[in-house]
Amino acid sequence: MEQVEQVLTKGKHHRIIDWCWTICIISFVGFLVENSWNVFTAGRLDNRNMHLPFILGYGLAILGVYLFFGTPTDNNGLINISNKSNVVFQYASYALLVMIFICISELIVGNGMELLSNVHYWDFSDIPLHITRYTSILTSCAYSIIITFFMSHIFDRLMTWLSHFDDSGYKIIGFVLFILLALDMIISLDSMIMNKNFNQIWYIQIF
């Protein structure tokens, strides 16, 4: 547990409250990304099974990636892939591990929700190189490239910027927002499990 705390705080440079804000920001971006894809494929916007415009799974995915692998350059994670003499290998190994992490996570979440709620949470069956309906090499590779770019070029800058905020309002809002997102995820998933159906609250048909 001490090692996990050391990884997440990186020698106390990364505060827990900054992690709360980062997870919330990524969760909101995830909501926008999914709805953008939803517009492109189905011509509609919807609540993505949540009550709030956040999908906590995206924020938790970034937390998991950092916990296990750190960033492509600092090797601060629980799994060390350091090879500073070969930058290409360093980044390629990082991206490959992230892709595997995404595939496994999607299989666990997708099959878990299907088992509990009899709902096909999402379906990649029409995408080439899919592994069951819940993950595919192409989508996981795309996510991996995006995450690798984010972790190498944006993550540290975002955490450094957030570290400049130290007032009580920033801390209270951050903790409360994170708790609300966690509660929303629990309530929304419980609704799907109990009703054996999607938790659709609203949608806007665009075309």
Structural domain count: 1
Beta strand count: 4
Q: What is the succession of H and E elements?
A: HHEHHEEHHHE
Work out the radius of gyration.
18 Å
Low-confidence stretches: none
Helix content bin = 55-70%
Counting DSSP H or I runs of 4 or more residues, the number of helices is 7
What is the CA-CA span between the terminal residues? 50 Å
Q: Kindly estimate the percentage of residues that lie in beta strands according to DSSP.
A: under 5%
Q: What can be said about the biggest beta sheet? A: 2 strands, antiparallel
What class would the helix/strand composition place it in?
Answer: mainly alpha
What global shape is seen? globular
Q: What is the strand arrangement across the widest sheet?
A: 1-4
Q: Give average pLDDT, whole number.
A: 93
Task: Briefly say what this structure is.
This protein has 207 residues and is mainly alpha-helical. The chain has helices spanning 2-9, 16-42, 56-69, 87-117, 137-153, 155-162, 168-195; strands spanning 44-46, 130-131, 135-136, 203-205.
Description:
This protein is mainly α and 207 residues long. It has one domain (2-205). Helices cover 64% and strands 5% of the residues. The protein contains seven helices and four strands. The chain has helices spanning 2-9, 16-42, 56-69, 87-117, 137-153, 155-162, 168-195; strands at residues 44-46, 130-131, 135-136, 203-205. A two-stranded antiparallel ribbon has the order 1-4. The protein has a two-stranded antiparallel ribbon with strand order 2-3. A hairpin with a 3-residue loop joins strand 2 and strand 3 (135-136). Helix 4 (87-117) packs across helix 5 (137-153). The mean pLDDT is 93.
